[in-house]
Each structure stands twice: as structure tokens, then as C-alpha cells.
Design brief:
- Strand 5 and strand 6 form a beta hairpin.
- 27% of the residues are buried.
- This protein has one domain: Beta Polymerase, domain 2, CATH 3.30.460.10.
- Helix 3 crosses helix 5 and helix 4 runs antiparallel to helix 5.
- It contains 5 helices and 6 strands; from the N terminus they run E-H-E-E-E-H-E-E-H-H-H.
- The strands form 2 sheets. It has a 4-stranded mixed beta sheet with strand order 2-4-6-5, sandwiched between helices. It has a two-stranded antiparallel ribbon with strand order 1-3.
Length: 175
């Protein structure tokens, strides 16, 4: 069972992202439409995160992604296919001591907007971000040896934040 480690936010996470972004751009070259640092390590306002860099890559054609599996394996990523989310390609790095997650979607996939709205919402709403950070710390202390229980307990709060982020995004566009 993977252990859940939560650390205080650090600028180092942005540097780690930028380093990995460059490597991934070299591998995917012109197949990348866009690339983003997502997840808690990208949001200072949360204050705490698992030290895993989440990377969102947008491509023109999701099927072409599979042709990069060997190159990604060479740099430590494990191809997991959709891994439970239709239309995604997922690649964790680091086995039991994960350092990065890549989430690849084709242009127009709803999860791209969901991830980016979530990030933007939490940056714009530091009180909700801080509450999320506090929850992460509390759950990691409560379930230090059970990552799945940590994730399960956190999901209700995350689902509520996703809903708020979506509504906020719609209001921003209307306003």
C-alpha cells in the first residue's frame, strides 16, 4: 500500500515542473497543443500537497500518444492507458515513490477545462484552497499508510470544489 506524504508547498515544485515540461516537449515535439502544471503542487494557495508533479498535456490526436510509450518508459514513466478515465492517457513516474503524473487528453476533452477551472478557482479563492490544504494534512495524518482511504475521504470535498469551480467559470464568462 502506498504511503501518503503531504508536504508544505514549495517553489521547487514549479522548477521540477518546468524541467519536466522541457523534456516532454522534446519528446512530443509538435504533437503537443498545450501543456500545463496542474494539481496541488501548482497552487501555492493550498499550502500543502503530495510531492507529485501533475502535468496536463493536450494533443491533437489521443491515439498518437500510444506511439510515445517507449520513449516515456526510457525516462521513467509507466504507460497505464486510460486508467479508468475514458479518453485519457495516464503515465505515473516513480513506482511506489511517485514523483510525476502525466495526464494526456485530446483537444476538447471536458477534463481539460475541469482541471484548469479547478486550478484557477483555487488561486482566486484562497480560503477554499487553504481548507483543501488543511483537509489534506488531516487525512494524511489519519490514514498515513492507506493512500486509497486518503483519496476516498478527500473525494467528497474535491467534488464540491470542482462543482464550485465550474459554476465560477461559467459566471466569469457571462460577466
Amino acid at each position: 500500500m502506498r504511503k501518503t506524504t503531504i508536504l508544505p508547498w514549495t517553489e521547487e515544485w514549479e522548477s521540477l515542473y518546468l524541467h519536466e515540461e522541457q523534456i516532454l516537449k522534446e519528446i512530443f515535439n509538435d504533437k503537443i497543443v498545450d501543456i500545463f502544471h496542474i494539481g496541488s503542487t501548482s497552487i501555492r494557495e493550498i499550502g500543502f500537497a503530495k510531492p507529485i508533479i501533475d502535468i496536463l498535456i493536450v494533443v491533437k490526436d489521443i491515439e498518437i500518444t500510444d506511439s510515445f510509450n517507449a520513449k516515456l518508459r526510457e525516462i521513467g514513466y509507466e504507460p497505464k492507458g486510460e486508467n479508468g478515465i475514458a479518453g485519457r492517457r495516464y503515465f505515473p513516474k516513480g513506482k511506489e515513490h511517485r514523483t510525476h503524473h502525466i495526464h494526456i487528453y485530446q483537444v476538447g476533452h471536458v477534463n481539460i477545462k475541469t482541471h484548469l477551472d479547478f486550478k484557477d478557482y483555487l488561486i482566486a479563492h484562497p480560503e477554499d484552497a487553504a481548507s483543501y490544504g488543511d483537509l489534506k494534512v488531516r487525512l494524511a495524518n489519519q490514514f498515513p499508510e492507506n493512500h486509497y482511504k486518503y483519496q476516498e475521504e478527500k473525494q467528497v470535498f474535491v467534488d464540491e470544489l470542482v462543482k464550485k469551480a465550474s459554476e465560477w467559470s461559467i459566471k466569469r464568462k457571462e460577466g
